């Protein structure tokens, strides 16, 4: 079982934060197909998030095909995002580790690396949406 | 697909849910007050059943006036409010509970005595629910209310309000007297109560940063008027920041809510047009989403600036 929480200082809407944490848990293998997500009430009680926010996140995850709601028994994991290309994930991770060492060697700190990554991702998004 | 979604979601909190309270053209003018000014003017909004709405505004914006009218403690000068039930206040009708800022407790009554008062004054009373809340926060039942700390007194008021099994719970700055731990625990417990019972919550607060994920709807008041009302996620998705080099106008579509400039940088917070996705902006401009706090501050600053212009 994962514990979902909301970072009030984050600029991301609360329901998106919850979605992101579920997707991350799926990617990292903390949640596997068939696992039950915490009930809405459990998330409300542990994280101080409004029930409507949790329901919205679960509904969006369901629309994305990642989870399914079973009446009376809860919300269950259906599939994992990026579970298919597991081999590719391993390779990409190795490349990234090398790249990060290179960046550190070149004198970049973690903040520099994050800024660089955000900028490249933003450029990439812009390129693909045009 | 739709069928499955409908089956999986909680009936009390689905989209397109019922409205529990409708307010139309509500206004309040205090007689003999300075300039006979309106404390509240032309307020119209609805509260969806099961929603948690935050009422935000500067000091003197009319928040307490609005809550007092909704609670039935003040008569509006203009407009009206509609509850969907016929027998208002009756056992079957909408029941409104109000936790005011000044906590009305009798000094020499014990906590248990105060629950008795709550039980006598309300047609519907759930003693177990009130006691559960007090046990949860370790409030001694035999202690005189006057000897409780401010935070404990607040807890007694929450317990009495919940004991009356409200369908709408109005809270005027509910956590302002509580320590940081109690704040987060009370918030989580209130939201759990709301999730369990389908109760609708309207709470006023100044701490906008703590509202993320707590409230799903916003009522923003300034100078007695409603500046913004609606679902928070939708309000924020309809606004955007443009960040780039010093400029007089934003690089993309949208109506400027607030702009700030330095020598070499400009930031525009804009309300996006209703239609279509936002076209990407050209470098070096970037966009960034708007947080609830940024949205609220920009709206309030805009009103203050407009007021200075008039004066």
UniProtKB/TrEMBL annotation, chain A:
<keyword id="KW-0805">Transcription regulation</keyword>
<keyword id="KW-0804">Transcription</keyword>
<protein>
    <submittedName>
        <fullName>Transcriptional regulator, GntR family</fullName>
    </submittedName>
</protein>
<feature type="domain" description="HTH gntR-type">
    <location>
        <begin position="12"/>
        <end position="80"/>
    </location>
</feature>
<dbReference type="GO" id="GO:0003677">
    <property type="term" value="F:DNA binding"/>
</dbReference>
<dbReference type="Pfam" id="PF00392">
    <property type="entry name" value="GntR"/>
</dbReference>
<dbReference type="GO" id="GO:0003700">
    <property type="term" value="F:DNA-binding transcription factor activity"/>
</dbReference>
<dbReference type="InterPro" id="IPR036388">
    <property type="entry name" value="WH-like_DNA-bd_sf"/>
</dbReference>
<dbReference type="InterPro" id="IPR000524">
    <property type="entry name" value="Tscrpt_reg_HTH_GntR"/>
</dbReference>
<keyword id="KW-0238">DNA-binding</keyword>
<dbReference type="InterPro" id="IPR036390">
    <property type="entry name" value="WH_DNA-bd_sf"/>
</dbReference>
UniProtKB/TrEMBL annotation, chain B:
<keyword id="KW-0813">Transport</keyword>
<dbReference type="InterPro" id="IPR027417">
    <property type="entry name" value="P-loop_NTPase"/>
</dbReference>
<dbReference type="Pfam" id="PF00005">
    <property type="entry name" value="ABC_tran"/>
</dbReference>
<dbReference type="InterPro" id="IPR051782">
    <property type="entry name" value="ABC_Transporter_VariousFunc"/>
</dbReference>
<dbReference type="InterPro" id="IPR003593">
    <property type="entry name" value="AAA+_ATPase"/>
</dbReference>
<dbReference type="InterPro" id="IPR003439">
    <property type="entry name" value="ABC_transporter-like_ATP-bd"/>
</dbReference>
<dbReference type="GO" id="GO:0005524">
    <property type="term" value="F:ATP binding"/>
</dbReference>
<protein>
    <submittedName>
        <fullName>ABC-2 type transport system ATP-binding protein</fullName>
    </submittedName>
</protein>
<keyword id="KW-0067">ATP-binding</keyword>
<dbReference type="GO" id="GO:0016887">
    <property type="term" value="F:ATP hydrolysis activity"/>
</dbReference>
<feature type="domain" description="ABC transporter">
    <location>
        <begin position="21"/>
        <end position="248"/>
    </location>
</feature>
<keyword id="KW-0547">Nucleotide-binding</keyword>
């Amino acid at each position: 079982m994962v514990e979902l929480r909301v970072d009030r200082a984050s600029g991301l809407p609360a329901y998106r934060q919850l979605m992101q944490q579920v997707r991350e848990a799926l990617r990292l293998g903390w949640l596997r197909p068939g696992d039950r997500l915490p009930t809405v009430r459990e998330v409300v009680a542990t994280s101080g998030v409004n029930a409507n926010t949790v329901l919205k996140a679960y509904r969006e995850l369901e629309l994305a095909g990642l989870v399914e709601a079973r009446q009376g028994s809860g919300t269950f994991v259906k599939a994992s995002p990026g579970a298919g290309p597991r081999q590719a994930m391993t390779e990409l991770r190795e490349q990234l580790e090398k790249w990060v060492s290179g960046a550190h060697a070149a004198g970049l700190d973690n903040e520099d690396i994050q800024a660089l990554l955000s900028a490249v991702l933003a450029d990439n998004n812009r390129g693909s949406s045009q | 697909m739709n069928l499955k979604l409908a089956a999986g979601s909680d009936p009390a909190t689905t989209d397109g849910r019922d409205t529990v309270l409708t307010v139309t053209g509500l206004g309040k003018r205090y007689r003999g007050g300075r300039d006979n000014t309106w404390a509240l003017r032309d307020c119209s909004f609805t509260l969806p059943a099961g929603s948690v709405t935050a009422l935000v505004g500067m000091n003197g914006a009319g928040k307490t006036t609005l809550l007092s009218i909704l609670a039935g403690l003040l008569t509006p000068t203009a407009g009206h409010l509609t509850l969907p039930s016929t027998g208002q206040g009756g056992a079957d009708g909408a029941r409104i509970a109000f936790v005011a800022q000044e906590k009305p407790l009798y000094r020499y009554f014990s906590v248990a005595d105060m629950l008795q008062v709550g039980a006598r004054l309300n047609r519907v009373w759930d003693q177990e629910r009130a006691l559960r809340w007090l046990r949860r926060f370790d409030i001694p039942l035999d202690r005189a209310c006057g000897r409780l700390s401010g935070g404990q007194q607040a807890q007694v008021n929450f317990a009495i309000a919940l004991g009356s099994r409200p369908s709408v719970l109005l809270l005027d700055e509910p956590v302002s007297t509580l320590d940081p731990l109690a704040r987060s625990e009370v918030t989580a417990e209130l939201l759990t109560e709301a999730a369990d019972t389908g109760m609708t919550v309207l709470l006023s607060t100044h701490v906008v940063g703590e509202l993320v994920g707590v409230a799903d709807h916003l009522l923003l008041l300034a100078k007695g008027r409603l500046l913004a009302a609606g679902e928070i996620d939708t309000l924020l998705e309809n606004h955007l920041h443009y960040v780039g080099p010093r400029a007089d106008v934003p690089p993309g579509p949208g109506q400027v809510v607030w702009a700030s400039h330095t020598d070499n940088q400009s930031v525009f917070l804009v309300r996006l047009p209703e239609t279509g996705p936002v076209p990407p902006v050209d470098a070096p401009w970037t966009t960034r989403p708007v947080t609830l706090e940024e949205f609220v501050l920009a709206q309030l600053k805009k009103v203050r600036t407009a007021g200075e212009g008039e004066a």
